[in-house]
Specification:
By secondary structure, the protein is of the alpha/beta class. It folds into two domains: about 120 residues, Urease, subunit C, domain 1; about 325 residues, TIM Barrel (Alpha-Beta Barrel), CATH 3.20.20. It contains 19 helices and 16 strands. The longest helix is centred in the C-terminal third of the chain and has 20 residues. The protein binds zinc ion. The site of zinc ion has 5 residues, from loops. Zinc ion binds next to loops.
């Protein structure tokens, strides 16, 4: 049976918050898509004389990274002409963007993820129109399947408060009659009855079970303000009976925090606790505006958090209290939300951002260690995407999702020997250093280039697709959306004006 011995100057076998397990001049043996043996290179060479060899002394070998929150977009909104800005108007502005070919966008996203060392993704697709659910999901899954990525697929669903955080009909009354009618048409076109959402899952669960090696399924109510309590209960019940994890956005902005306080008289987390929604099967993306009491509830319920540092900075959402979450023992994974620091989905850059963003001031304050950050981007991400104990570590029995990172650029000094290889890769590496990526034993990146798809061809087709002149209807839609934006800003004017006590201390005015 064909097997491969993958050798590294360092092999990070098991990322751990309190110090990762690693081997110097180590190797892992891949056979049949799984890791069969791990140890010192010389011993493995003797034990497996017929295995072909890959890697060597100039590489760090590490588990493939896990991006635990992504929307499958190959081009960011910025690429498509919607500049970064506060989430609430920005998300509506995006509704006015020209639609992009879903397959090409997904394939391009997958290529960028692979080339920067990501092997597993929480693929959270935003539901489009009811009639196209199957077609759209097949297009997105197709892009990732063709690239060879491992995914947890979830379809984000919402059915209320879609323009601002109040009833759609009530908000429409704030608009001039003509604009209101035009917005109603846009909302109707995107309306999906809740029954359709569950029927969609009835169809994809058996279909995707056949791809279980590569694909897992999760449910995804988009966010608290966008889903009724009844819907949240139904999703929880459906997910529980089908043994599916749940992935949702929560408390991304201060306005979402205030929505819960205004609507339920308590925090969003407290309300979800009342609904018996929280639990080890749930991962929440963002979680920026948690109170101390919320953090305790998240920790006590075993709910996971996915931290999206770059997205939260770009959309002026704030900084999630990652240090308080970690100190309570919450499992924190990392995601880029299709809004990474450089709009390129390079999780190495986002790991570095996370390592540096949470350095609160003062000699006594703690900062995340490189080991903690790597653990978030591997082991914790594996848990959030339904691949716990299958990916995220290089141990016998795990799937062979492996990255070979070239040391030449990052180790121009003996930094890897002095600070340690985990520090070197978190503080210095980026996607340029990724040489080879293997997923389930298949090489999908070689010499830094994706082998499963042709990057240049996909990029050219995508560019052609987004360069097409918008139709008259698309122009009208963009014009309508532009007219709504000032009303959205006006709507939130009185929100979140109370005194906010920050978790972190950055400066002071008194
Ligand atoms: Zn998101």
């Amino acid at each position: 049976m064909a097997s491969t011995l993958i050798r590294g100057k360092y092999v990070i076998t098991s990322p751990k918050a309190d110090g990762s397990d690693l081997l110097t001049d180590g190797a892992v043996l891949e056979e049949n898509g799984f890791i069969q043996d791990v140890g010192a290179f010389e011993q493995l060479r003797q034990r497996h004389p017929d295995a072909k060899e890959m890697g060597g002394n100039q590489y760090i070998v590490l588990p493939g990274l896990v991006n635990a929150h992504h929307h499958g977009n190959g081009l960011s909104p910025l690429h498509l002409g919607v500049p970064d800005g506060p989430l609430e108007p920005w998300i509506v502005q995006r509704m006015g963007s020209k639609p992009v070919d879903i397959y090409l966008s997904a394939a391009y996203a997958a290529i960028k993820l692979l080339q920067s060392g990501t092997t597993t993704v929480m693929l959270n697709q935003s539901a489009g129109a009811a009639a196209r659910l199957d077609e759209d999901s097949q297009a997105m899954l197709g892009g990732f399947r063709d690239a060879g990525l491992r995914v947890c697929y979830s379809l984000g669903y919402r059915h209320q408060n879609r323009i601002v955080y109040e009833d759609d009909a009530t908000f429409l009354k704030r608009l001039p009659a003509e604009v209101s009618r035009a917005v109603q048409v846009i909302l109707d076109a995107g309306h999906i009855p809740a029954d359709e959402y569950f029927r969609f899952y009835d169809r994809i669960i058996p279909a995707l079970t056949e791809e279980r090696d590569r694909v897992r399924v999760a449910m995804s109510p988009s966010n608290l303000q966008w889903c009724s309590d009844g819907l949240l209960r139904d999703i929880k019940a459906y997910a529980t009976s089908n043994k599916l994890p749940i992935h949702m956005h929560l408390l991304e902005t201060v306005y979402q925090k205030e929505y819960a306080l205004r609507t339920f008289g308590k925090s969003a987390v407290a309300h979800l606790a009342d609904l018996q929604f929280l639990g080890t099967d749930v991962s929440i993306a963002h979680a920026v505006w948690l109170t101390e009491a919320d953090i305790r509830m998240v920790a006590d319920s075993g709910t996971q958090v996915c931290h999206n540092a770059s997205s939260n900075l770009k959309l002026q959402s704030g900084i999630a209290p990652v240090q308080p979450l970690l100190s309570r023992g919450v499992t924190v994974a990392l995601g880029t939300d299709s809004m990474s620091l450089n709009d390129d989905d390079d999780l190495f850059q986002d790991m570095r951002l996370v390592a540096q963003l949470h350095r609160n001031s003062g000699l006594d304050s703690t900062a995340p260690t490189a080991d903690q950050v790597l653990t978030m981007a591997t082991v914790n991400g594996a848990k959030a995407t339904g691949f716990e104990h299958e990916v995220g570590r290089l141990l016998p029995g795990y799937r062979a999702d492996i990255v070979l990172l070239r040391l030449d650029r990052i180790a121009q000094s003996p930094i890897d020997e002095v600070a340690g290889p985990v520090e070197a890769l978190v503080y210095l590496a980026d996607g340029r250093d990724v040489d080879t990526v293997m997923i389930g034993g298949q090489v999908v990146v070689q010499d830094g280039r994706v082998t499963s798809l042709n990057r240049e061809e996909i990029a050219a087709r995508l560019k052609e697709n987004v360069s097409q002149k918008p139709t008259a209807e698309e122009v009208r839609k963009a014009d309508v959306i532009a007219e709504v934006i000032p009303y959205i800003k006006e709507f939130y004017r009185e929100w979140a004006t109370y005194d906010l006590q920050p978790h972190y201390r950055y400066n002071s005015r008194a």
